[in-house]
Amino acid sequence: MQKVRKAVIPTAGLGTRFLPITKAVPKSMLPIVDTPTVDYIVDEAVASGITDIIIITSHNTDVIERHFAENLPLEKRLLTDGKTELCEILKKITSRAKITFIKQDTLNGLAGALLCAEELLAGEPFALLLGDEIIYTEAGQKPCIRRLCEAYEKTGKTVLSTMRVAESEISKYGNIGIKADGEIKEVCALVEKPAAKDRLSDYAVIGRYVLDGGIFKEIRKLTMHGSEIILTDAFHVLAERGEIVASEFEGIRYDVGDKAGYVQANVEYALRDKTLGDKMKRYIAALAKTL
Ligand code: G1P
Hints:
Elements: E1 6-10, E2 31-32, E3 35-36, H1 37-47, E4 52-57, H2 61-68, H3 72-80, H4 84-95, E5 98-103, H5 109-121, E6 126-129, E7 133-136, H6 144-155, E8 158-164, E9 174-180, E10 185-192, E11 203-211, H7 214-221, H8 231-240, E12 244-248, E13 252-255, H9 259-272, H10 277-290
The chain binds 1-O-phosphono-alpha-D-glucopyranose.
1-O-phosphono-alpha-D-glucopyranose binds at residues 110, 130, 133, 173-174, 192, 204-207, 232.
């Protein structure tokens, strides 16, 4: 099976849940401590063996592009000031993968975003990482996308990452019907954001996938739901043909597209930070006593 080298990160979207900041700053550039969200996602892809990344943007694209471009005067200044460690961090941002940007002019859903990347993908299998969730893994745990790439390379099927959620939460997610459970689950159906009573199982789809070129043929056959082309509808067709599997991930997932999830990610990453951690622990412990 062909090795997965490419990844797509859709970041277009108006970010209405984060207005007013997203009026001028794309949602994917909101920081978790000191690093933009999209950077954590690129890190996961690179740690999973991805070498080519396509970032789909819409408005305020230049800020994202500038983040991934070299800033030689700044690097020179940091070196002159003896801040070599910081300079290395900046260099790594630009050198760790080949990053290409593509603009999504019409905001017509996730499947619509993917169509923008079709030509650059040139028929190769690819990972898809949604821009508003990040997955923290500890040493010894496999990055989520790596697990999916391995499952794809083993089965040749489209692979979705999944997690169990409470009945009351299922209406926020794509939901899978399972034919055979196990480490690699055989998926027989999918439905987007069902009411709890209509759910197919307790398994929700999270924003990590490995797909191949075959998805585009299915996307083209879909009809729009309002202004959107729903990727889950294309997955359902593949699932009915037995061409989709799913696997659970290791680590902690943060829904940074949600305000509470975003703040939670900031608190927990700050607690893990080697320079901030102790200070934050003392602060949170003292604060907790007052609550
Ligand atoms: C998207 C997908 C949905 C998936 C979710 C994961 O929904 O359409 O199937 O479960 O991401 O976060 P969104 O959250 O963009 O509405």
